[in-house]
Amino acid sequence: MPALRKYDQETRDRAVRMYQDRRRDFPDESALQARRRVGELLDVKPETRATDHRPATPRRPAGTARR
C-alpha cells in the first residue's frame, strides 16, 4: 500500500515551481535558504521540509582530489 501524502500533487508541483523561481530570482541565496523560504510561504512545517527528495549525488572516495 502506498504511503499517504499530506500534500496533493498540485501543491507539490507548485512548491517545486516556487523553489525554481526563487533560485533563479535570488542567485546569492543558498538552496537550503530557498527551500526554507518556500516552505514558510506555503506554511509547511519544518519537520516536513526536512525530507530531502533530491536524488543522492555520488560521493568521491576519501583522498581523491577534484580536478
The DSSP helix count reads 3
How much beta, percentage-wise?
Answer: under 5%
Largest sheet, in brief, is: none
| Beta-strand segment tally | 0
The Cα radius of gyration reads 15 Å
Question: Shape, please?
Answer: extended
Low-confidence stretches: none
- Residues in helix, %: 40-55%
- Rounded to the nearest angstrom, the distance between the terminal CA atoms is 46 Å
How would you classify the helix and strand content by structural class?
Answer: mainly alpha
Helix-strand string = HHH
Averaged pLDDT, please?
Answer: 81
What key phrases describe this protein's structure?
67 residues; mainly alpha; single chain
Model description:
- The chain is mostly helical and 67 residues long.
- The chain has a domain at 9-49.
- It has three helices and no strands.
- The chain has helices at residues 9-25, 31-41, 46-49.
- Helix 1 crosses helix 2 (31-41).
- The longest helix is centred in the first third of the chain and has 17 residues, at 9-25.
Reconstruct the topology from this structure:
Blueprint lengths: L8 H17 L5 H11 L4 H4 L18
What's this model, at a glance?
The chain is mainly α and 67 residues long.
